[in-house]
Amino acid sequence: MKLSLIVPCFNEAENVQLFQEETIKAFQGCGYSFEIIFVDDGSSDATLHNLRKLYEQQRCPVKVVSFSRNFGKEAGLYAGLQYAQGDYISLIDADLQQRPEIVREMVDFLENNAEYDVVAAYQDRRREGKILSLFKKTFYQVINKMSDVTLQPEASDFRTFRKSVRDSILKLGEYHRFSKGIFAWVGYKTHYIPYTACQRAFGTTKWSFRKLLNYAIEGIIGYSTAPLRLSTWLGGLTGIAAVLYLIAVVLQKLIWGIDVPGYATIIVLILFFGSVQLFCIGIIGEYVGRIFEQSKQRPIYIAKEVLLPQEGKKP
Ligand code: UDP
Ligand code: MG
């Protein structure tokens, strides 16, 4: 098998067949074999039903992995990688925002440039609101300052890479997965190409602002211990401020004999220090939580159904 396309699907019932058709069209006459690995991420619509149909038809080699619930796109990609048998592996969305023709270009590039292991696409023009793009920009500035690896702000997880990269990614068995960080962490020489995201074929985006925010926190906590240091610094600074204030209060009392009329001040200080403490405990908790999750060694996903091409069946 030359190429494996990994397609995470969450409520993409209308898109999956179209995706397969477009992919077959895009690879017509390419001269090599490819398989599509659909990962149904616990969809509540007819996605699995439609995937079964595609599997039955086998118009091109199709594998289907169906999760017992929604585990998230990252888990879907991980499952896809486990089942991928191609020399090249491609990660692509089901909604046709990312065109299969570009995957063909990516494969051609890797074929002709042995020194590169990864081709990653980045969006040249983003169709998103100003607030969201500001949020994203700030996120990357913050995380790249704090983290050991450098994340490429524009690069998406729409990419194609060699088998060796897949093997490396699979070695990272962390439960909390953040693929951008994982790609940056495993390294390999990466070539970036621009692409324009098309409109979603059907359905709506699965990313709410809350999901994006959680994803951002995942990236920061998963790839840096700087927040822990931040809490140490915060503790130190507020400690110094408290001592200074204490000196001021004592001097006021001793020199000027002013009784501190401090009710409001005390309340404000209690609230302030209380919230700083909670904030720091929260940061520590984020890490402890991850240690806890990881120490349980839970699987990254649970597959309730896996459909693999059988021997003897037409390709
Ligand atoms: N997806 C998934 N699990 C999720 C959310 C999304 O497998 O919990 C899939 C989704 O079906 C799609 C891809 O991830 O194939 C990208 O999602 P979406 O198109 O909603 O994101 P956007 O393109 O808006 O960033
Ligand atoms: Mg999309």
**How many helical stretches?**
10
Number of domains: 2
List the uncertain runs: none
- Helical residues, percent: 40-55%
CATH class assignment of the largest domain: Alpha Beta
Determine the strand fraction and express it as a percent band. Answer: 15-25%
Distance between the termini: 11 Å
**Structural classification:** alpha/beta
Radius of gyration computed on alpha carbons: 25 Å
Bound ligands, named by name, code or SMILES: uridine-5'-diphosphate, magnesium ion
What can you see in these coordinates?
With 315 residues, the protein is α/β, with parallel strands linked by helices. It has 2 domains: 3-205 and 299-314, Spore Coat Polysaccharide Biosynthesis Protein SpsA, Chain A (Alpha-Beta Complex), CATH 3.90.550; 226-295. 50% of the residues lie in helices and 16% in strands. The chain has 10 helices and 8 strands. Strands 7-5-6-4-1-2-3-8 form an 8-stranded mixed β-sheet, sandwiched between helices. Strand 1, helix 1 and strand 2 (34-40) form a beta-alpha-beta unit. Helix 5 runs parallel beside helix 8 (209-222) and helix 9 packs antiparallel against helix 10 (263-295). The termini are close together. The model has no long low-confidence stretch (mean pLDDT 85). Residues 8-10, 12, 41, 70, 72-73, 76, 93-95, 97, 205-207 line the site of uridine-5'-diphosphate.
